[in-house]
């Protein structure tokens, strides 16, 4: 096994880890649940020195397998995308792959609709929806926290070896939408206090499992000093989890960011500048989380992303002094030539 983990028993103690650096890819539930697609991705990983799969356990409220968590069953959140999760994980781990459970926390359409008492509400008491018509659950609500923690615990029992929280934030909606939003369980807390409270509580509740607890964040969280009105501020999160995963997709940065006229056309500069900002901030935080960026393995606008763009991003990770990365492609389709090119890039650890 690639991973030998020793977790601090006290809250606030960062997990000490001895393992090969994570080089991973994302698998949606359909890819993980398909014998054929899973086999193809395992073969791809073997040839490209990929040692980690991030697999959907809960996405927009749907649990990917027949969960035994009572609330998941009660609100009809369980699906059969992965018909035998335990068997799938046995196959993945037998191939030397570290399986990470991705759990989308607060963008939970299923729970919000089935349990309006756990949802963000409008001022007149209806269930609030974002600009896409999607309801979210109340990020301050402890029952919501416990539900996601129960799913995480079940995922580890099935054979996952790490928990990754995603959408551990508040909606990034225009003010015109948020002005009508009410969080019934807020109790005077700020958004960043709500996110931090969940992360600390979840780590405490899952401490006995001895697995890393990680969280995805917006790419700009590395550089912006406030919480961007979504509750994600680097200093409020970096000592509350073992790893933070900023989504430093160049296509998601506005023109002019970091002085770049077109960030999407400058993947090396975007990734390196972002990560260096995060490293500087980490140096001021005791027990700061490791940084493991999500990199862009999809095309959104020009140019088309292929081997060159992926290689530039990975080279930027190494040149910034980091050693870990995970590729995101929502369809879980990865180019073999591109992945092979990544395996040949030398690591340059500078800090």
Q: End-to-end span in angstroms?
A: 26 Å
Bin the helical content.
25-40%
User: Under the CATH scheme, which class?
Assistant: Alpha Beta
Question: What is the oligomeric state here?
Answer: single chain
How much is the radius of gyration in Å? 19 Å
Average pLDDT, all residues = 94
Number of separate helices? 12
CATH names the topology as: TIM Barrel
* Shape label: globular
**Could you say how many structural domains there are in total?**
1
* Pattern of helices and strands: EEEHHEEHHEHEHEHEHEHEHEEHEH
Tell me the number of strands.
Answer: 14
Can you characterise this structure?
The protein has 351 residues and is of the alpha/beta class. Helices cover 34% and strands 17% of the residues. It has one domain: Glycosidases (TIM Barrel), CATH 3.20.20. The chain has helices at 29-33, 35-48, 70-74, 85-94, 109-114, 142-158, 175-178, 191-206, 234-237, 267-282, 307-319, 336-343, and strands at 3-6, 16-19, 23-27, 52-59, 62-63, 98-104, 121-122, 163-166, 181-182, 213-218, 243-247, 290-291, 294-296, 325-328. Strands 3, 4, 5, 6, 8, 10, 11, 12, 13 and 14 form a ten-stranded mixed β-sheet that branches. Helix 10 (267-282) links the parallel strand 11 and strand 12 (290-291).
